Amino acid sequence: MMEITYPGLMWLTIGVTFFVLEMAVPGFILFFFGLAAWLTALACYLFPLSVNTQLAVFLVLSLVCLFTLRGIVQKVFIGDTKDDEPDSILAKGGEKCVVTSSIKPPAEGQVKFSGTFWRAEASEDIEEDEVVEIVEQNDLLITVKKLS
Protein backbone atom coordinates (compact mmCIF):
# COMPACT_ATOMS: atom_id res chain seq x y z
CA MET A 1 0.00 0.00 0.00
CA MET A 2 1.32 3.41 -0.94
CA GLU A 3 1.68 5.90 1.88
CA ILE A 4 1.30 9.63 1.39
CA THR A 5 4.66 11.04 2.44
CA TYR A 6 3.61 14.66 2.46
CA PRO A 7 -0.09 15.02 3.31
CA GLY A 8 0.35 18.79 3.55
CA LEU A 9 1.37 18.88 -0.12
CA MET A 10 -1.77 16.93 -1.03
CA TRP A 11 -3.96 19.44 0.83
CA LEU A 12 -2.15 22.38 -0.82
CA THR A 13 -2.86 20.82 -4.22
CA ILE A 14 -6.51 20.27 -3.33
CA GLY A 15 -6.70 23.93 -2.23
CA VAL A 16 -5.25 25.16 -5.51
CA THR A 17 -7.74 22.97 -7.38
CA PHE A 18 -10.64 24.55 -5.48
CA PHE A 19 -9.30 28.06 -6.25
CA VAL A 20 -9.06 27.25 -9.96
CA LEU A 21 -12.55 25.74 -9.99
CA GLU A 22 -13.91 28.87 -8.26
CA MET A 23 -13.10 30.84 -11.39
CA ALA A 24 -15.24 28.49 -13.51
CA VAL A 25 -18.19 28.03 -11.13
CA PRO A 26 -20.28 31.01 -9.99
CA GLY A 27 -21.38 31.41 -6.39
CA PHE A 28 -18.18 32.22 -4.49
CA ILE A 29 -18.24 29.04 -2.41
CA LEU A 30 -15.32 26.88 -3.60
CA PHE A 31 -12.88 29.57 -2.44
CA PHE A 32 -13.68 28.70 1.16
CA PHE A 33 -13.08 24.99 0.57
CA GLY A 34 -9.71 25.91 -0.91
CA LEU A 35 -8.93 28.04 2.13
CA ALA A 36 -9.94 25.16 4.42
CA ALA A 37 -7.67 22.79 2.44
CA TRP A 38 -4.75 25.18 2.90
CA LEU A 39 -5.45 25.46 6.63
CA THR A 40 -5.59 21.66 6.80
CA ALA A 41 -2.20 21.56 5.07
CA LEU A 42 -0.87 23.91 7.75
CA ALA A 43 -2.29 21.64 10.47
CA CYS A 44 -0.63 18.62 8.80
CA TYR A 45 2.68 20.48 8.77
CA LEU A 46 2.43 21.40 12.46
CA PHE A 47 0.96 18.15 13.83
CA PRO A 48 1.10 14.48 12.78
CA LEU A 49 -2.54 13.82 11.84
CA SER A 50 -4.18 10.60 10.67
CA VAL A 51 -6.17 10.62 7.44
CA ASN A 52 -9.46 10.53 9.36
CA THR A 53 -8.37 13.46 11.51
CA GLN A 54 -7.29 15.39 8.41
CA LEU A 55 -10.71 14.85 6.83
CA ALA A 56 -12.46 15.94 10.04
CA VAL A 57 -10.27 19.05 10.27
CA PHE A 58 -11.01 19.86 6.61
CA LEU A 59 -14.77 19.40 7.13
CA VAL A 60 -14.89 21.60 10.23
CA LEU A 61 -12.67 24.30 8.70
CA SER A 62 -14.75 24.27 5.50
CA LEU A 63 -17.95 24.92 7.39
CA VAL A 64 -16.37 27.54 9.65
CA CYS A 65 -14.82 29.40 6.69
CA LEU A 66 -17.99 29.17 4.62
CA PHE A 67 -20.41 30.40 7.26
CA THR A 68 -18.24 33.00 9.01
CA LEU A 69 -16.20 34.51 6.20
CA ARG A 70 -18.49 34.32 3.13
CA GLY A 71 -20.60 37.38 4.01
CA ILE A 72 -17.56 39.45 4.91
CA VAL A 73 -15.59 38.54 1.78
CA GLN A 74 -18.60 39.07 -0.49
CA LYS A 75 -19.05 42.60 0.85
CA VAL A 76 -15.40 43.36 0.15
CA PHE A 77 -15.23 41.91 -3.37
CA ILE A 78 -18.82 42.22 -4.63
CA GLY A 79 -20.16 45.07 -2.50
CA ASP A 80 -23.46 45.47 -0.72
CA THR A 81 -26.31 44.07 -2.77
CA LYS A 82 -28.86 46.37 -1.15
CA ASP A 83 -28.53 49.68 -2.91
CA ASP A 84 -30.81 52.65 -2.56
CA GLU A 85 -30.17 53.37 -6.22
CA PRO A 86 -32.51 51.65 -8.66
CA ASP A 87 -30.58 49.56 -11.17
CA SER A 88 -32.94 50.25 -14.05
CA ILE A 89 -33.48 53.39 -16.08
CA LEU A 90 -37.21 52.65 -15.96
CA ALA A 91 -37.34 52.86 -12.18
CA LYS A 92 -36.57 56.57 -12.37
CA GLY A 93 -39.78 57.26 -14.28
CA GLY A 94 -40.47 60.09 -16.68
CA GLU A 95 -39.64 58.09 -19.80
CA LYS A 96 -42.15 57.91 -22.65
CA CYS A 97 -43.43 54.68 -24.22
CA VAL A 98 -46.23 53.46 -26.51
CA VAL A 99 -49.12 51.28 -25.39
CA THR A 100 -49.24 48.16 -27.60
CA SER A 101 -52.15 46.45 -25.84
CA SER A 102 -54.83 48.57 -24.16
CA ILE A 103 -54.80 48.86 -20.39
CA LYS A 104 -58.17 48.48 -18.65
CA PRO A 105 -57.72 48.45 -14.84
CA PRO A 106 -57.50 46.19 -12.96
CA ALA A 107 -56.29 44.19 -15.99
CA GLU A 108 -52.78 44.71 -17.27
CA GLY A 109 -51.84 45.82 -20.74
CA GLN A 110 -48.58 46.05 -22.61
CA VAL A 111 -46.20 48.84 -23.58
CA LYS A 112 -43.17 49.05 -25.81
CA PHE A 113 -40.11 50.81 -24.42
CA SER A 114 -36.64 50.82 -25.98
CA GLY A 115 -37.64 48.09 -28.41
CA THR A 116 -38.87 45.74 -25.66
CA PHE A 117 -42.40 44.81 -24.65
CA TRP A 118 -43.31 45.19 -20.96
CA ARG A 119 -46.34 44.31 -18.86
CA ALA A 120 -48.03 47.54 -17.81
CA GLU A 121 -50.67 48.76 -15.40
CA ALA A 122 -52.39 52.09 -14.92
CA SER A 123 -55.05 53.67 -12.73
CA GLU A 124 -57.16 54.65 -15.76
CA ASP A 125 -58.14 53.17 -19.12
CA ILE A 126 -55.50 53.73 -21.79
CA GLU A 127 -56.05 52.73 -25.40
CA GLU A 128 -53.64 51.07 -27.79
CA ASP A 129 -51.12 53.31 -29.64
CA GLU A 130 -51.28 56.08 -26.99
CA VAL A 131 -48.01 57.58 -25.82
CA VAL A 132 -47.73 57.37 -22.03
CA GLU A 133 -45.26 58.24 -19.32
CA ILE A 134 -43.60 55.68 -17.08
CA VAL A 135 -44.31 56.35 -13.41
CA GLU A 136 -42.39 53.46 -11.85
CA GLN A 137 -41.12 49.95 -12.41
CA ASN A 138 -41.69 47.02 -10.07
CA ASP A 139 -39.65 44.08 -11.38
CA LEU A 140 -41.12 43.38 -14.83
CA LEU A 141 -44.32 45.40 -14.34
CA ILE A 142 -44.38 49.06 -15.36
CA THR A 143 -46.87 51.57 -14.00
CA VAL A 144 -47.79 54.24 -16.57
CA LYS A 145 -50.02 57.30 -16.80
CA LYS A 146 -51.48 59.37 -19.63
CA LEU A 147 -49.54 62.42 -20.67
CA SER A 148 -50.94 65.63 -19.20
Question: Nearest-angstrom radius of gyration?
Answer: 27 Å
Q: Tally the helices: what do you get?
A: 3
- With strands numbered from the N-terminus, the spatial order across the biggest sheet is 1-2-3-5-4
Task: Determine the structural class based on helices, strands and strand pairing.
Answer: alpha+beta
**3D shape:** rod-shaped
Strand content: 15-25%
N→C terminal distance: 85 Å
Counting DSSP E segments of at least 2 residues, the number of strands comes to: 5
* Arithmetic mean of pLDDT: 85
Task: Specify the helix fraction band.
Answer: 40-55%
The major beta sheet can be summarized as: 5 strands, mixed, barrel
Query: Low-confidence stretches at least 5 residues in length (pLDDT < 50)?
Result: none
| Total domain modules | 2
Explain how this protein is built.
This protein is of the alpha+beta class. The protein has 2 domains: 7-77, no CATH class; 90-146, Nucleic acid-binding proteins (OB fold (Dihydrolipoamide Acetyltransferase, E2P)), CATH 2.40.50. Helix content is 42%, strand content 21%. The chain contains 3 helices and 5 strands. The protein has helices at 7-24, 30-46, 51-77, and strands at 96-101, 109-113, 116-121, 131-138, 141-146. Strands 1-2-3-5-4 form a 5-stranded mixed beta barrel. A hairpin with a 2-residue loop joins strand 2 (109-113) and strand 3. The longest helix has 27 residues, at 51-77. The protein is rod-shaped, with a radius of gyration of 27 Å. The termini are far apart. The model has no long low-confidence stretch (mean pLDDT 85).
